[in-house]
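Thread: quick sanity check before group meeting

JM: Hey all, I'm pulling together slides for Thursday and realized we never actually wrote out the predicted structure for the chain we discussed last week. Dropping the sequence here so it's in one place. If anyone has concerns about the input, flag it before I start.
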Amino acid sequence: MFYSKNVPGWERVLRIVMGAMMLVASIAWFGPTTMGWAIGIMGAMAAMSGLFGFCPACAMVGRRLNH
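JM (edit): ok, ran it. Output follows.
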């Protein structure tokens, strides 16, 4: 593994759920507009950080899990 997980389990679930909700909102309410694309990309990034358990922004500020 090339990274160490820095997102706890409860936050991973929250990121996946919120990311999916943002993707649905971008398609349902905004469509193919600039705002729709921006919200869709942010939702995809949130969901991916939840799936992988690694957040690059958290890593930059030094966040680590206590195992």
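AS: nice. The radius of gyration is 13 Å. The mean pLDDT is 89.
JM: adding both to the slides.
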